[in-house]
């Protein structure tokens, strides 16, 4: 702050000695180099050139013949992402993590652009077009049934860009239509564009996009776009902002309670969450890791608190499995709705029945109990009247998922702890938190893959046993009615047959969703106040939790709620129309 550097140079030892008198200055301070850009570029230039050549040589090794370009590209992307993650972890743990994420992202982007340029000059236009066409055909073959989902993502993310493009296209075409301009040219209409709107108003390229867009199932694409936006708002607002607010309030509220009382509260909240079908166990373990540490640290220390939280998490999971299996699956197995929700007639659940009924505890059964969906798996065990004790024993390896998840919560809290002077108490905790989160994702995904592998094996190798499992006739009738309503829903919601006011409602839902997503993404600092786990509502939000949201954030949330309301109106109308359309067929 006084304009002086906070270290001295020891030439003999070739090191920097930081002055202890400057409490806030440490080895990660880079402000002293703000005026040395020219020297820094000269110094780092050879390294950047060598790094670029290393990337290019690394990329070139994946251009060898012997496998398809798609396989080599996927292999290269996986290896490069692993190397990036390793570099990030190394730099962060070494104390040089300031800006390293942005730097590595920029490095990846520039490297891939350079590789794209290299490839573009290495192949002629015919070869490039052939490669693109082949990749497009493979994508259509593999994922053609799910294209509407990705089109919805494209709409919700790129609509403003498309609008700007069409505005520019309109201006360009109007200039071309001016007779006195040297750039004027008569409107061009090809045979394929003859029936496409915009003749004389948009360029040929823009009209081709209009033709492509008109061929989509617009109702389904717009609906998926709203769902994508809803997912984004849940992640970036509810989970990112309000979850932190709730957890900080929970930490503050429980800070004056004893450990037993806090444990009871968390077990009660966790049990309620476990009994909700859509809620997985990961956020529950994460919450335990965040809340137990500040309460248990004065008594047991951090390590003891972590071990204690692990034990509570495991007991909570086993207790939830017991209630789901015996109280929901065992007592409600006569309800058709419960059995239909679990999908007892699907190949997935029938193969799960086959594996779970076999005696003993093998890796196939354990992988299903750990990697399968929490609520349906436990309820299915209750519907099948399986013994509880073997199921609980087979669930014990869930500790390998609980541990990294809980540690992620612990280090998330520890990364926000500071001394009175503002210096971080655990500067490495943020990096370790990211590593634990990555391990959590790997274990979660890996267990699901292993479970899917054994279920697929059961379908392929034990087909005669699978066919011998009787079909639930009541659920079959309910499924057939649901499928008929689904087909009727698609018929009555085709864009060309929708009434004008219904189209307007759906477009209002889409436009308000896009608006709120862009507001939150581009102007997050203007929508919400900064808030961390260690903050308190009294000190940082002036005693009112609603102060977390700024006026622009309130507007974004109103738009989000309005979008949901418009989509609800559209869905209610469509369902009523679909049922009315089926009334002569299904009573």
Description:
This protein has about 575 residues and is an all-alpha fold. It contains 22 helices and 2 strands. It has helices at about 35-60, 70-95, 100-120, 125-145, 145-175, 205-215, 220-255, 260-275, 280-330, 335-340, 345-355, 365-370, 375-385, 390-395, 400-415, 430-460, 465-470, 475-490, 500-520, 525, 535-540, 550-580, and strands at about 5-10, 15-20. A two-stranded antiparallel sheet has the order 1-2. A hairpin with a 4-residue loop joins strand 1 (about 5-10) and strand 2 (about 15-20). Helix 19 (about 500-520) packs antiparallel against helix 22 (about 550-580). Mean pLDDT is about 75; it is low at about 90-100.
Overall pLDDT, averaged? 77
Number of strands: 2
Helix content: over 70%
Order of helices and strands: EEHHHHHHHHHHHHHHHHHHHHHH
Number of helices: 22
Provide the β-strand percentage band.
under 5%
Task: Write out the strand line-up for the largest beta sheet, numbering strands in chain order.
Answer: 1-2
Largest sheet: 2 strands, antiparallel
Instruction: Report low-confidence residues grouped into runs of 5 or more.
Output: 91-100
Structural class: mainly alpha
Overall geometry: globular
Distance between the first and last residues' Cα: 79 Å
Query: Mind telling me the C-alpha Rg?
Result: 29 Å
């Amino acid at each position: 702050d006084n304009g002086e550097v906070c270290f001295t140079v020891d030439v003999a030892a070739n090191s920097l000695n930081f002055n202890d008198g400057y409490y806030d200055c440490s080895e990660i301070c880079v402000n002293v180099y703000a005026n040395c850009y020219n020297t820094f570029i000269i110094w780092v230039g050879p390294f950047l050139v060598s790094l670029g050549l290393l990337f290019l040589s690394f990329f070139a090794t994946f251009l060898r013949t012997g496998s398809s370009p798609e396989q080599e590209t996927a292999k290269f992307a996986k290896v490069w992402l692993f190397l990036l993650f390793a570099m990030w972890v190394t730099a962060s743990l070494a104390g040089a993590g300031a800006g390293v994420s942005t730097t590595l992202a920029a490095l990846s982007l520039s490297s891939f652009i350079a590789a794209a340029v290299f490839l573009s000059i290495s192949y002629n236009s015919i070869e490039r077009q052939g490669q693109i066409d082949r990749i497009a055909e493979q994508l259509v073959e593999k994922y053609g049934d799910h294209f509407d989902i990705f089109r919805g993502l494209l709409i919700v993310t790129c609509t403003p860009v498309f609008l700007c493009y069409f505005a520019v296209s309109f201006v360009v075409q109007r200039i071309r239509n001016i007779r006195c301009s040297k750039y004027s040219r008569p409107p061009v209409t090809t045979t394929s564009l003859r029936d496409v709107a915009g003749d004389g108003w948009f360029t040929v390229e823009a009209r081709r996009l209009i033709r492509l867009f008109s061929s989509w199932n617009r109702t389904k694409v717009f609906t998926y776009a709203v769902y994508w936006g809803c997912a984004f708002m849940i992640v970036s607002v509810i989970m990112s902002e309000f979850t932190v607010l709730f957890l900080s309030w929970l930490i503050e509220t429980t800070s004056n309670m004893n450990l037993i009382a806090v444990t009871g509260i968390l077990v009660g909240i966790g049990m309620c969450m476990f009994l909700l079908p859509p809620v997985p166990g990961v956020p529950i373990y994460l919450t335990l890791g965040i809340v137990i540490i500040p309460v248990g640290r004065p008594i047991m220390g951090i390590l003891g608190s972590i071990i204690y939280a692990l034990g509570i998490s495991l007991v909570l999971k086993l207790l939830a499995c017991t209630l789901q299996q015996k109280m929901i699956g065992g007592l409600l197995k006569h309800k058709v709705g419960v059995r239909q929700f679990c999908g007892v007639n699907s190949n997935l659940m029938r193969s799960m029945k086959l594996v779970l009924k076999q005696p003993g505890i093998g890796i196939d059964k354990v992988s299903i109990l750990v990697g399968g969906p929490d609520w349906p798996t436990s309820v299915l065990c209750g519907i099948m009247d399986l013994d509880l004790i073997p199921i609980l024993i087979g669930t014990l390896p869930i500790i390998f998922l609980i541990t990294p998840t809980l540690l992620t919560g612990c280090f998330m809290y520890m990364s926000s702890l500071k001394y009175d002077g503002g210096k971080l108490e655990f500067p490495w905790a943020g990096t370790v938190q990211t590593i634990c989160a990555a391990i959590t994702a790997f274990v979660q995904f890996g267990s699901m893959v292993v479970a899917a592998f054994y279920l697929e094996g059961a379908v392929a190798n034990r087909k005669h046993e699978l066919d011998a499992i009787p079909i639930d006739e009541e659920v079959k009738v309910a499924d057939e009615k649901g499928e008929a309503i689904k087909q009727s829903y698609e018929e009555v919601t085709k864009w060309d047959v929708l009434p004008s006011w219904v189209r307007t409602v759906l477009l209002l839902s889409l436009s308000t969703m896009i608006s709120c997503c862009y507001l939150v993404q581009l102007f997050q600092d203007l929508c919400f106040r900064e808030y961390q786990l260690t903050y308190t509502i009294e000190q940082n939000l002036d005693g009112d939790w609603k102060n977390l949201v700024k006026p622009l954030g309130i507007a974004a949330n109103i738009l989000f709620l309005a979008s949901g309301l418009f989509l609800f109106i559209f869905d209610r109308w469509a369902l009523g129309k679909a049922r009315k359309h089926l009334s002569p067929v299904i009573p």
